[in-house]
Amino acid sequence: MDDPTLEADVFARGCLSRETLQSATSRWGVLALAALAESDYRFSALRRRVDGVSERMLSQTLQTLERDGLVVRTVLEAIPPKVEYSLTPLGRAVADHLTSLIRVVEEHVPTVAAARIEYDARR
Amino acid sequence: MDDPTLEADVFARGCLSRETLQSATSRWGVLALAALAESDYRFSALRRRVDGVSERMLSQTLQTLERDGLVVRTVLEAIPPKVEYSLTPLGRAVADHLTSLIRVVEEHVPTVAAARIEYDARR
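ok -> structure tokens follow
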């Protein structure tokens, strides 16, 4: 969406808001943001928290989130230098909604498991 | 997560809750759920609402959401038969959080656009 007089609409395929939504809800984006909602993280600790992500995928994910203004990368002066990731205010707002969503999903695992059994039995 | 005594944890790579989170936040899952939060939809109308989705991708997305108990597919008796999609109570809870997330993202398009300009200027 290059025309700022148009209202943002994630349902419109060219809208920047759809791109941002999709970075925030990408496979690793959603988990990286939810982890950063708990605390700031150094890269390697974040990678341990987001179980299963490769170094390359986490690095790409963080770059996309940083570019969209959701995450800040801070280089701390030290030898060797330390790099820390944290949320911007917008990143915090997005991550809070993701955390609420995650809570709903985690609480309803038995509902999902039962729905799958029922669905698979009908096939 | 096959052991129901373990607590669900999206950060654990084998947990069912992570799979469900990722269906709900997939590229088309998030938009299909947000559309169904507005109203029930017939397949073709939903496809028009979710601008850019192919018939095949929407169909796969809806099957995954139905299997996880987020969406219900109802065949209405008519000639020709009509198929309608709606949210389950769990789908509604998930979609409400996605809708709040979408609102934040849509409202902050100028912040994101400014962050991108700033990021790209630093490279």
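Chain A has one domain: 16-122.
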